[in-house]
């Protein structure tokens, strides 16, 4: 299975929801539904946000309080919640996240206050687990997994056992059954539950922590609910005036109210990860970041396809694991919540990446919850944000001077009237930092043993690699290490179908110690030989990393460019932010192997642009698609205002190869010719004796040369716009190129190839 095929939106995630009997639907339709529910005009919007890092009787977590802040800022500034209507129960709130307080807050803040048609949100970030179910379900999902006798739980702050008797360990967890009953007491149907937790794989893996309670019990012991939990369930059933049989029957049908989102399926992991200067749940961070950037112009079908496609894109490649993990999502049984337009309305505020939170004199502080983690590292100084009014009109600009406390930035106003700077005003990226000297982040794993010093010396001589201490490697980096028996056991438990490397072989691991596909060599390979073998892999990962960052920035361009990829009766449409609306047909979009593709690109801008198109194979190799005349590439790349470019030209074809995977078409439309890039490609063509035609299999030093040339073009683009600029530095002190998003649109069309 190719590396790209396993890149899914919510990497490390795992979910309690799956053990509640929820069917697996596509998360991205759910995310769209969640966004549209929140955007409705309702009498009131209520939220209860629970986050727990500091546990008693379970391993500590790092990112759950960040999750709460991510969700709170999203709800207030993007969806119009009042801060007084958001109740927070967390380690640092007045109301601590004990079992009693979580239930009390649910009752008093949500059940007692919510009226019919109100919007209600319950978010939980913390440990999950599963315990013996006194009234087990009998549904297909649990029968297939062989665990119908268990019920998923969320774990309050005090996770220590209440009582231990023989083989049974009594715990004070809150069961899925209890959440079902509490939810049933709500008077509104417009309820959203989000659980960023899981019940398997507890402990630390590499530089991440799994959100499952570490069980300090014997292997023959089972967890059982506390007497308080069972008594509460009886009280709730009585309040609902249900019989026990009716309760069980209702549980069999699915969730009680609204919609429910969970981190992943029942056997997957919810990960607490280190991003660029902050910890967060991967599920919550990526969900909220997506909702910050959600536009009102796209129908639900387009959102569904765009998000499903983007999970396999270079833009999110290092924010998703190579393990194929999809979150869980379900609508209330018998409802039409998934239908448009009955319950889900367009958003009322413009898409953005940040929001002003504090104004003190000339110092402006803003929340960066919608900014991609790749951009955070390089935007410490020199990043520029456009300030938007309520209609989305640009009314001022802010230049960032620093980033503080993880997701907060500070800066000052550089243009516009001072009255335009207000708390709550949304910000959109205008200039972001792109590394001028990009490097691949690596850390050496202790499994290398006696080879650590040799590996360090060898890698330090590579100017394209930056070595980090193990505990400082972010989610975008890799470990170099040996595959051990411990790794083998760990990975076999997570994914028994995954083809694992040989024990003692050297290769790359992702930040959670998942082995990087096809990076491991033969047994007892000398460390220097292994590093030399991996050099092309290092180069490919670095190339894709930079292309991904460029894509993150270029997708927000105000240039009006759209494209359509078609073949075999399938149509996939993508567009820059400057395009008002793009409708997508055929869900999901899949292309059969050997399909003949056609690509149509429209320049709806009022200016001439220059067009270049790259195809990144499912294996990560670079290929050119346009231009193809290497005697005059600049002339061929001209893309006139209003022009519709249809490719490939008559007499040529583009055929999808391979039986499966996710190749990606990158479309670059720039205000000025990408002369350095075209020159680098010309040189590759000359070395191959080609004067025309697509260049295929560009890899290694060739691909790095193309990327270096593209970075040079970004510098020239910035100069052409404003006649000069001051290069900034990222948080590591490395030089950055201030990339103005309006100078180039970068579109991504990820194609799912099936046999």
Automatic annotation (TrEMBL):
Residues 598-673 form the DUF4384 domain. It comes from Lyngbya aestuarii BL J. This is Uncharacterized protein. One of its GO terms (molecular function) is cysteine-type endopeptidase activity. InterPro entries: Caspase-like_dom_sf, DUF4384, Metacaspase, Pept_C14_caspase, TAT_signal. One of its GO terms (biological process) is proteolysis. PANTHER family: METACASPASE-1, METACASPASE-4. It holds the Pfam family Peptidase_C14. Residues 44-331 form the Peptidase C14 caspase domain.
């Amino acid at each position: 299975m190719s590396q790209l095929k396993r890149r899914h939106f919510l990497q490390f995630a795992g979910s309690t929801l799956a053990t509640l009997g929820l069917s697996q639907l596509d998360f991205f339709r759910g995310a769209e539904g969640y966004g549209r529910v929140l955007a409705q005009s309702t009498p009131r919007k209520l939220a209860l946000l629970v986050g727990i890092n500091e546990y008693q009787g379970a391993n500590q977590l790092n990112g759950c309080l960040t999750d709460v802040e991510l969700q709170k800022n999203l709800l207030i500034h993007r969806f119009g919640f009042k801060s007084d209507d958001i109740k927070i129960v967390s380690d640092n709130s007045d109301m601590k996240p004990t079992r009693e307080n979580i239930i009390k807050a649910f009752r008093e803040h949500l059940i007692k206050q919510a009226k019919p048609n109100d919007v209600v949100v319950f978010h939980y970030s913390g440990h999950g687990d599963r315990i013996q179910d006194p009234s087990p379900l009998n549904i297909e999902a649990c029968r297939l997994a062989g665990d119908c006798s268990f019920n998923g739980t969320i774990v309050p702050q005090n996770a220590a056992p209440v009582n231990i008797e023989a083989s049974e360990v009594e715990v004070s967890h809150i069961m899925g059954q209890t959440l079902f009953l509490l939810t049933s007491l709500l008077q509104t149907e417009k309820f959203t539950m989000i659980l960023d937790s899981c019940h398997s794989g507890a402990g630390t893996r590499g530089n991440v922590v799994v959100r499952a309670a570490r069980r300090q019990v014997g292997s023959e012991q089972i967890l059982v609910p506390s007497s308080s939990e069972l008594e509460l369930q009886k009280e709730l059933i009585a309040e609902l005036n249900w019989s026990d049989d009716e309760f069980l029957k209702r549980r069999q049908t699915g969730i009680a109210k609204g919609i429910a989102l969970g981190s992943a399926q029942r056997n997957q992991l919810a990960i607490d990860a280190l991003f660029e200067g902050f910890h967060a749940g991967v599920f919550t961070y990526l969900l909220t970041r997506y909702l910050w950037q959600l536009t009102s112009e796209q129908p639900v079908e387009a959102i569904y396809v765009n998000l499903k496609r983007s999970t396999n894109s270079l833009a999110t490649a290092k924010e998703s694991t190579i393990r194929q993990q999809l979150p869980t999502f379900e609508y209330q049984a018998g409802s039409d919540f998934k239908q448009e337009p009955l319950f889900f309305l367009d958003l009322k505020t413009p898409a953005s990446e940040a929001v002003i939170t504090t104004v003190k004199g000339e110092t402006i502080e803003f929340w960066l919850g919608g900014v991609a983690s790749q951009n955070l590292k390089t935007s410490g100084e020199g990043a520029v944000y456009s300030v938007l009014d309520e209609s989305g009109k640009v009314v001022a600009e802010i230049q960032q001077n620093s980033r503080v406390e993880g997701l907060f930035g500070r800066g000052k106003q550089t243009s516009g009237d001072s009255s335009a700077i207000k708390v709550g005003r949304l910000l959109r990226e205008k200039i972001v930092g792109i590394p001028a000297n990009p490097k691949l982040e690596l850390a050496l794993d202790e499994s290398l043993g006696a080879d650590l010093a040799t590996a360090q010396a060898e890698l330090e001589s590579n100017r394209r690699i930056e070595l980090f201490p193990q505990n400082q490697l972010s989610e975008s980096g890799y470990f170099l290490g040996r595959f051990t028996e411990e790794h083998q056991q760990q990975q076999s438990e997570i994914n028994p179908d995954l083809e694992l490397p040989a024990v003692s072989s050297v290769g790359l691991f992702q930040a959670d110690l998942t082995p990087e596909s096809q990076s491991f060599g033969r047994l007892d390979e000398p460390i220097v030989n292994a590093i030399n073998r991996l050099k092309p892999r290092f180069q490919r990962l670095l190339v894709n990393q930079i292309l991904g960052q460029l894509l993150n920035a270029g997708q927000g361009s105000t240039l009006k460019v759209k494209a359509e990829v078609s073949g075999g009766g399938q149509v996939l449409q993508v567009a820059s932010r400057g395009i008002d609306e793009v409708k997508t047909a055929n869900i999901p979009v899949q292309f059969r192997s050997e399909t003949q593709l056609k690509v149509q690109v429209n320049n709806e801008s009022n200016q001439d642009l220059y067009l270049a198109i790259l195809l990144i194979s499912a294996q990560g190799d670079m290929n050119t698609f346009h231009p193809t005349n290497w005697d005059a590439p600049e002339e061929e790349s001209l893309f006139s205002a209003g022009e519709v470019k249809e490719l490939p030209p008559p007499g040529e074809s583009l055929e999808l190869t391979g039986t499966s995977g996710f190749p990606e078409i990158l479309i670059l439309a720039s205000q000025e010719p990408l002369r350095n890039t075209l020159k680098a490609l010309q040189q590759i063509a000359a070395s191959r004796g080609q004067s025309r035609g697509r260049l295929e299999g560009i890899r290694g030093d060739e691909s790095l040369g193309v990327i270096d040339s593209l970075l040079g073009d970004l510098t020239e683009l910035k100069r052409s716009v404003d006649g000069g600029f001051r290069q900034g530095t990222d948080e590591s002190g490395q030089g950055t190129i201030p990339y103005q998003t309006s100078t180039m649109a970068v579109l991504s069309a990820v194609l799912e190839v099936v046999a």
